[in-house]
Specification:
The protein is mainly alpha-helical. It contains two helices and no strands.
């Protein structure tokens, strides 16, 4: 019985010793630096901020490119509209000239027919 009691107390002491945590010796102080290194969270915040700034800048550039493209398209449309107006004016002028010419020919043909009718009536 003494042996079992001794063995049991040895096991209890062993288990109790396993549960204790020994404190690690304090690490040697780091040499002084001019600026402390940012914490990982700070570094992540800074990287995220930089990414946001880059995205904003990229979006601004894209917006400017869209504005420039829209301006160029508007200018091209104005030019094409101006050309279309000119072409319409030219076509209208040509139509008027053709109508005048046709009217002149019709008048000449009518006069000729009237002259022939007058001569036929004299006979």
């Amino acid at each position: 019985m003494k042996k079992s009691l001794l063995l049991a107390s040895l096991i209890v002491v062993t288990l109790a010793a396993c549960g204790k945590k020994e404190e690690a010796p304090a690490p040697a102080p780091a040499p002084a630096t001019t600026a402390p290194a940012p914490a990982p969270a700070e570094a992540a915040k800074e990287a995220a901020g930089a990414a946001v700034d880059a995205a904003k800048e990229s979006a601004a550039k894209a917006g400017e490119a869209v504005k420039e493209g829209a301006t160029a398209a508007a200018d091209a449309t104005k030019e094409m509209a101006k050309d279309a107006v000119e072409a319409t004016k030219d076509a209208a002028g040509a139509t008027v000239d053709a109508a005048k010419e046709a009217a002149d020919k019709a008048a000449a043909a009518a006069k000729e027919a009237a002259d022939k009718a007058a001569e036929a009536a004299k006979k």
